[in-house]
Amino acid sequence: MKFSKVKNQTIILSLISILFIFVFQAKAEQTYSLMPWQVGQFVEYQVISFEGEGADNRYRIALVAKERVQGKEYFWLRIDIFSSVKDLRETKLKKNITFLCLLPEVRSCEFENNPAAFFKNGFFPSSAVKLKVQLFDGEFTEVDCREYFSYQSIIEDTPYSLTPDYLGNIDFTRMHVLDRMEQILVPAGSFFCKHFYVKTDISRSYTDEGFDLWQSSAVPLLGVVKVEFSKTLFWEKWSYKYETGQIRSGKEILSRFFTKRVPGRRREDTCIIKLVNYGLVNENKN
Amino acid sequence: MKIKIKKIVPIIIMLFMIIAYISPLLVNLNKSFTLFPKNIVQYYMTYFECFSLRNAVIANHQFPLWVSGYDGGINFFAFPSTIYADPTSIFALFFNEIVSDKLAWAVFYILGALSMYYLCFCVLRYNWAGSIFSSIVYTMGGYFSHLQEESFIPVRVTLLLPLFFAFLIKAKANRVFLFFAAFVLAFISLESALLLPVIVLFTALFVICQKDFRFFVIYICICLMAFLYSFFKTILTLDMFWQNVQIINKTHEYIIKDANTIGTLLYRLIFPENFGVGMYVGIVPVLICIVVCFINFKTMFNFVVCLIIAVWLSLGPNSLFDLNRALWQMPLFGGMHEVAKYYGLVIVFFMSVICGGFFSFIEKIRNRFLADCLSCALIGFVFLNLLWFNVGYFNVFNTTLPEEKGVARDFYNILAINLHPGDESVTAPLSYFLARKNIGLLNMHQHPYLRKSSNVVPKYILLPKYAFLVPSTRLVVLPNPEYKGEFFFLNKSLVSKVRFRPGELIFDVRSLKPDILIINQNFDRGWKATAGKVENHLGLLSVRFDRPLDSRVRLTFLPGNFIIGILISLLAVILSLVYLKKKRK
Fold first, then answer.
1. Closest Cα of chain B to A69: distance in Å?
2. Alpha-carbon torsion B6, B7, B10, B16, what sign?
3. A95 half-sphere exposure, CB direction, 13 A CA radius
4. Which chain A residues are within 8 Å of B425, Cβ to Cβ?
5. Same structural domain for residues A94 and A125?
6. Are residues A17 and A144 in the same domain?
7. What is the average pLDDT across B386-403?
8. What is the pLDDT of residues B408-457, one digit of tens each?
9. Residue A241 maps to a domain
């Protein structure tokens, strides 16, 4: 009698566990989606460098208005880019540039099909239908998107384009999603997130870069909670021999005098983007 | 004749050692420390300086003062760490950036070794072995080679520090050396930036330890003479700080991450795997130094006290009693947040000098052959050890800088915004490559005392792509809708450019009414115009024309205080030479 009671309890517990797992998994799949766009939604991010000296620059992205163009609904997305200015007593935020872009909504289903496409482009305003730019406290100037983003050759014409800052590339085809949810703590709070990542492949090429991105459906717009990049090679941990194969075994001692001993890529521009604030406000005055 | 050979042979041996040490630099003369796609980013700033120097002198036939492309235009000659005033920068006029930089370093390594040999052998009266030992520990120690790899240019000239000490000590007995010491100090001051206050502080400490008031007066005279000799540059530096000074925004606690602890200092001195400031000299010189400090404390009192205080200061807030905090309040010292780096110079110098004293003990061994063998073994071991572990700093990547293609454009500026503050990894390479295209960068790596922002209007803006939540390190180029040109009249009078060179601007001006010509460069008092009045218009250079004008206007940058400075420096040198000639007679 006792045995059958224990057995029954075990079966019930197992069933509950299985049910829990299914529910949890369903929840995980749900968080893959995006919150529907709504005027007033905003997200605010902070940028911190890996080197410890936090840049503390801020980015605020908000949906400020709606507009119908040729029968189709578009949103005015406002991107404010601030930089932190420190003095002895306090840190102030100084606005550098604002973009007002007229964009179609990023729908959850589109995002689910190909999240990499959205992380690859972020809120880069080159695909906007209309674009207005405000520098510092100046006037908003409407610009032609195609023309406005067509000056890249200024850098590309210089050998700077050969430096890792410019050559650095993330292969989004290698993007993976961790099959379990992770709890991530950022200044805006704690979130259960999906973890998207691209691992740096050191055997591929020196400019190969990676990233880690945590996304939650509880956060508006793209739902980005935290981004870490670029996961480049570790400084002073990789031998020149391994990289170039120029050192022959017999000449190794001699070549010590003529080849670089400590290679490695010193990257101070690696950084973390963290969500510091998000929500819904009435901002359709602009 | 025999005596001369006996004196020359150790010098030749020492030079042979130093040349062997720097041979990778000379063998790979045209090969860069920077590698594509890898970077040792600070080198781009050195290359920028070499390029702008050659551009001013060879391409524009000017004295190198004004650099238009640096932060909206600045008197670069006034910079405390510029290579412009260093005579070895003459290499930059004849060779490319890589070769000129390496040749300058090679020259200073050799001069540094000779200086230390002179100090030890001729002034401190060490034997040949002690002198060679001190020279190789000082020159081949990891401090200079590590900072060379970091391209910390101010440290290069401080290789002459032993020569200054030698002349300073000699000046006590012979006044003639007062002028020599002053000359060397002036030379060091031209390029050493924040290392100069450290040198002045420790030489003052050394003099005070002698407990001789007359010596202290001589030292003050040396400092004054050095100030006069270097007046042509010092006056410009002071003027630049006066015009652009800003308060350092770092608190004293900030320096803790760059300060030593006793453990890290010993680790840096003993183990070649450096972190932070590389100072590898090996276990033998460190042990010898400790032994000499204990046994020979009385004779070496000045050097030992200076070494202890240097170590103490380098500990910063890590020490129980923070001596550095008192200095932090003083001007210039407040900018030294990398204390381990700045005080590392004097630690290595005093250690090297003290080490050489050990060979006077060896000399006391009765068996001369055994003593010589022991000396040679010690020197040989330390030489090979330092060669093995520190020569790696000179091994360069097997690459050269890419050739510049295309013609120079009309000059304009670019502003990079929202990069990490002080992020040289982006701005340093960018500034150099843009300069080669005749484009200026408005937020270059800045001196901590100088203002952070310029009012010069950029033609383009650079934004990091991650500002749009794109995980990418690339930069996006955006045109500035508010850009009005590099020169324009406020009331729309006509102006056309005839020449736009760094220190010389020529315009054809046609104004029918009073107007103001705005030039998109930082204002500086050193600008003079052939017509109109040069003014500061919201931080920009401008020329006010109070009446209608139809003529050619030439603006030149030649600060009045630079001419006064040159005259005073020349006068000081001539008077010194006259005095020396009289004294010789």
1. 24
2. negative
3. 12
4. 165, 266-269
5. yes
6. no
7. 74
8. 678 999 988 877 654 556 677 888 888 988 899 887 765 555 655 678 99
9. no
Count of domains forming chain A: 2
Residue A59 Cα, gap to closest chain B Cα (Å): 7
Which tens digit of pLDDT belongs to each residue from A6-51? 667 767 767 666 655 555 544 444 446 788 888 999 999 988 765 5
ipTM over 0.95: no
Domain annotation covers residue A132: yes
| Disruptive mutation site among B44, B442, B468 for chain A (greatest number of A CBs within 10 Å) | B468
Q: pLDDT at position B146, please?
A: 85
| Whole-number Cα distances in Å, A78 to A38, A283, B240 | 13, 10, 41
pLDDT of residue B86: 86
3-state helix, strand, coil in chain A (%, to 5): 25, 35, 35
Comparing B544 with A282, which gets the higher pLDDT? B544
Say if residue A16 is in the same domain as residue A147. no
Q: Which of B40-49, B273-282, B517-526, B558-567 has the lowest mean pLDDT?
A: B273-282
What pLDDT band is residue A233 in, cutting at 50, 70 and 90? Answer: very low
Cα(A115)–Cα(A118) distance, integer angstroms: 5
Task: Please list every residue in chain B whose beta carbon sits closer than 8 Å to the beta carbon of residue A168.
Answer: 472-474
Nearest residue of chain A to residue B473 (CA atoms)? A165
Contacts of B393 in chain A (CB under 8 A): 261
In degrees rounded to 5, what are phi and psi of residue B492? 65, 30
pLDDT per residue as tens digits for the range B124-161: 999 999 999 999 999 999 899 888 877 888 999 999 99
Pairing of strands A211-215, A189-198: antiparallel
Max mean pLDDT range (A153-157, B23-27, B215-219, B480-484): B215-219
Domain range for residue A193?
Answer: 32-232+267-280
Q: Is there a contact between A123 and B418 if contact means CB atoms under 8 Å apart?
A: no
pLDDT at A240: 37
- With residues binned 3-state (H G I as helix, E B as strand, rest as coil), the percentages for chain B, rounded to 5, are 55, 15, 30
Contact B203, B182 (CB under 8 A): no
Q: Same domain for A176 and A72?
A: yes
Nearest to B353 by CA among B187, B169, B224, B487: B169
The reply to whether A27 and A111 lie within a common domain is no
- Indicate whether A16 and A53 sit together in one domain: no
- Domain membership flag for residue A151: yes
Residue type, B277: V
Which residues of chain B are within 8 Å of residue A263 when distances are taken between CB atoms? 35, 38, 397
A228 in the same domain as A183: yes
Summarised one tens digit per residue, pLDDT across range B308-364 is 999 999 988 888 888 888 888 787 787 787 888 999 999 999 999 999 999 988 988
CB < 8 Å to A206, chain B: 37-38
Mean pLDDT for the stretch of residues B223-234: 95
CATH number of the domain to which A66 belongs: 2.40.360
Q: Is residue A257 part of a domain?
A: no
What's the gap in Å between the CA of B466 and the closest CA on chain A? 8
Q: Measure B86 CA to nearest chain A CA, in Å.
A: 28
Interface contacts A/B by beta carbons within 8 Å: 204
Q: Specify the DSSP class assigned to residue A219.
A: S
Host H or E run for residue A182: strand A182-186
Residue B128 corresponds to which amino acid? W
Segments making up each domain of chain B, as ranges:
2-30+107-180+188-209+250-394, 412-479, 487-559
Beta carbons of A229 and B430 less than 8 Å apart: no
- Contact: B397, A257; criterion CB under 8 Å: no
Mean per-residue pLDDT for A56-62?
A: 88
